[in-house]
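Data card: per-record layout.
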Amino acid sequence: MKSLQAQIDKLAVCAPAQRIELREPILAHGVEAVAPLAALAAEDPELGPSVTAWLEVLAKRDEEAKTPVVAALRTLVSSSQEDTRRHATEALGRLGVSVSASRARRVTAAKA
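The structure for this 112-residue chain is written out next.
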């Protein structure tokens, strides 16, 4: 198995059509993948929506990863990137986690 960092580095530069090929190898690292994926989503607005979806998948598959994923998604709700904020908020909702009213208002206001 390739190192997690090598896969994250590849994700950061690959074309959008090839990203999905990296999902399973990265998610195979389980909870170890959460922090580097969240950091990548925070840094790169193009990757934010994909990464939030991947984190949601990981949380649904791996109970051990759910708490770190929720924490990462809550951090991404504060992102300066509108798409990342929206996708993180929606992922939290699907995971049954509420977002604070003030954060929800900021996300709603950003959509307007």
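Known properties of this structure: DSSP finds seven helices and no strands in the chain. The chain has a mean pLDDT of 89.

See the next section for split statistics.
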